[in-house]
From TrEMBL:
It is a peripheral membrane protein. Belongs to the TRAFAC class translation factor GTPase superfamily. Classic translation factor GTPase family. LepA subfamily. Belongs to the GTP-binding elongation factor family. LepA subfamily. InterPro entries: EF-4 (IPR006297), EFG_III/V (IPR035647), EFG_V-like (IPR000640), EFTu-like_2 (IPR004161), G_TR_CS (IPR031157), LepA_C_sf (IPR038363), LepA_CTD (IPR013842), LepA_IV (IPR035654). The gene is lepA. It is found in: Cell membrane. This is Elongation factor 4. HAMAP family: LepA (MF_00071). Residues 4-186 form the Tr-type G domain.
């Protein structure tokens, strides 16, 4: 297809505004997916995405649109996630595109991630096409929301399309606008190959598959390619696109978004953000890659069965191909043995990685409580980054500690401003600013400790505003805080994986809450187990887990065999994620107790 008839675009929006549903309609209306294969949010192909109803991974598809001007156009559409933890997926998608379709829910208006994603698109010099969705809803106010987009974002909305992605109403106009308003790729197919690697995955049969956007040149089977950052060279075995089924093509040309397979067995050779060129006719320079993402949250991941340490290592390396923001390095814990300290972009990201490791690599894992990176100033004048509470130096060696703060922007209807201010105060937030957005909404700006944000801030914010608030945050600076390490002792023994770093003013409460929570979560055993919280060797809270009295099965004596079976199964299920530490069996939930306190 002629390059001027190619359109590469992402669909961006705040979570739940209808990106994936719009992608469904586009695939349907262009007959890309056959009717009998169609299902809702078809691009959310991971089980995990379907179960949770959210998009986690970017997903690129090629389709042909027969436009009203009689010509065929080749579209490469990238559906993106909306959650703040997956912004990295969005930024990578955008670098592979020339335009973006911005979807805004006409009932909800501009939300925090609407703005965040627009800024990303503008950073990438993309043309933005605003679309108002959900106009079928009685509460939709397309005109009000258009005004909001013009005021808050500065995009002209005079001919923004009003659609219902659900029913398909006016989606044909979106397709026409894409042709008219979004630019064709600018590259030159006669120049040396420059292909941007924006994603990758490990296939057990074919090795690493690189997903690429061809910015210049062409590539086909048999070509010898070079990864410019790593210098690795391979011979191409296959190239193709996704429709969303994988389709093999003769050749990928400038403007195409597709995949390259080259029997790549060495995972380290492929890096997201790298440029692929040809070995015998290399480009002078690589393309501008991506900013490395700095993880916000760190936690230990340990196999329940120590013998599977190597499997976990292998799985992490493979998963990193498909999730470039994941970071990991080996770590040992007295309580849990050998594992990895992993860096994540947020708690949802951590949760998703853990679940993907368990499902896709068949591992049983224990995750320790998440932590941010603290800067520890020692009395000897040195400074150290600490991402694991257990690794905090002894108190007498510490001069002071700094913790990361973020700038949080919260958009909220006026009547909930008080509730949000209360919440931010409780989370040690410092008020910075407040702006009036429109007749009904305000934007609140706070500086807050990252450690308070990553835990349950989001849930608390949603529940105290009936779901009407949205927020975005970014790192602002390190600030000195009065922090201490709190140890947890089970049966008199410090469990390093349960240590946390807390603000001194909250220590007593947290210690109490933590011991009570652990008492609930750790199953009774044959003997009584004291649970203690201590700071610098001084116990600040304590409780006991009573000894087990009778066999649980005794209750079902003589009776219902199926009930007995169920009980056994339930116990077995619970066992899967338990770790024997000394003489005490600790379930996974106990390590996460810190997340569900207060
Ligand atoms: P995403 O998070 O932006 O990908 O949003 P989804 O496409 O997953 O949609 C979120 C929810 O909004 C789903 O329950 C959709 O069925 C619903 N939805 C999407 N578009 C429309 C629409 O035009 N009208 C209505 N009423 N609901 C919609
Ligand atoms: Mg989605």
């Amino acid at each position: 297809m002629d390059q001027k008839n190619i359109r590469n675009f992402s669909i961006i929006a705040h979570i739940d505004h209808g990106k994936s549903t719009l992608a469904d309609r586009i695939l349907e209306m262009t007959d890309t997916v056959e009717k009998r294969e169609m299902k809702d949010q078809i691009l959310d192909s991971m089980d995990l995405e379907r179960e949770r109803g959210i998009t986690i991974k970017l997903n690129a598809v090629q389709l042909v649109y027969h436009a009203k001007d009689g010509q065929d156009y080749l579209f490469h559409l990238i559906d993106t996630p909306g959650h703040v933890d997956f912004t990295y997926e969005v930024s990578r998608s955008l670098a592979a595109c020339d335009g973006a379709v911005l979807v805004v829910d006409a009932a909800q208006g501009v939300q925090a991630q609407t703005l965040a994603n627009v800024y990303l698109a503008l950073d990438n010099d993309l043309e933005i096409l605003p679309v108002l969705n959900k106009i079928d809803l009685p509460s939709a106010q397309p005109d009000v929301v258009k005004q909001e987009i013009e005021d808050l974002i500065g995009l002209d909305c005079s001919d923004a399309v009003e659609i219902s992605a659900k029913s398909g109403l006016n989606v044909d106009q979106v397709l026409e606008e894409i042709v008219k308003r979004l630019p064709a790729p600018k590259g030159n197919r006669n120049k040396p190959l420059q292909a941007l690697v924006f994603d990758s995955l490990y296939d057990p049969y074919r090795g690493v598959i690189a997903f690429v956007s061809i910015k210049n040149g062409t590539v086909k089977k048999g070509d010898r390619i070079r990864f410019m950052a790593t210098g690795a060279e391979y011979e191409v075995t296959e190239v193709g696109v996704r429709t969303p089924k994988e389709v093999v093509e003769e050749q990928l040309n400038t403007g195409d978004v597709g995949w390259i397979s080259a029997a790549i067995k060495n995972i380290e050779d492929v890096r997201v953000g790298d440029t692929i060129t040809k070995a015998d006719e290399p480009a002078d320079q690589p393309l501008e890659g991506y900013k490395e993402m700095q993880p916000m949250v760190y936690a230990g991941l340990y196999p329940v069965d120590n013998a599977r340490y190597e499997d976990l290592k292998d799985a992490l390396a493979k998963l990193k191909l498909n999730d470039a923001s994941l970071q990991f390095e080996p770590e040992t814990s007295q309580a849990l043995g050998f594992g990895f300290r992993c860096g994540f972009l947020g708690l949802l990201h951590m949760d998703v990685i853990e679940e993907r490791l368990e499902r896709e690599y068949n591992l049983n894992l224990i995750a320790t409580s998440p932590s941010v990176i603290y800067k520890v100033y020692r009395t000897d004048g040195t400074v150290e980054d600490v991402d694991n509470p257990a690794a905090l130096p002894p108190a007498q060696n510490i001069d002071h500690i700094e913790e990361p703060y973020v700038r949080a922007e919260i958009m909220v209807p006026k009547e909930y401003v008080g509730a949000i201010m209360d919440l931010c105060q409780k989370k040690r937030g410092e008020y910075i600013d407040m702006q009036v957005l429109d007749d009904v909404r305000m934007n609140l700006v706070y500086e807050m400790p990252l450690s308070e944000i990553i835990f349950d801030f989001f849930d608390k914010m949603k529940s105290s505003t009936k779901g009407y608030a949205s927020f975005d945050y970014s790192f602002s600076r390190y600030k000195r805080s009065n922090l201490v390490k709190m140890d947890i002792l089970l049966n008199g023994q410090v469990i390093d994986a349960l240590s946390i770093i807390v603000h001194k003013d909250f220590a007593y409460n947290r210690g109490n809450a933590m011991t009570i929570k652990l008492k609930e979560l750790i199953p009774k055993q044959q003997f009584e187990i004291p649970v203690q919280a201590a700071i610098g060797g001084k116990v600040i809270a304590r409780t006991n887990i009573k000894a087990l009295r009778k066999n649980v099965l005794a209750k079902c004596y003589g009776g219902d065999i199926s009930r007995k079976k169920k009980l056994l199964e339930k116990q077995k299920e619970g066992k899967k994620r338990m770790k024997m530490v000394g003489s005490v069996e600790i379930p996974q939930e106990a390590f996460m107790a810190v997340l569900s306190m207060d």
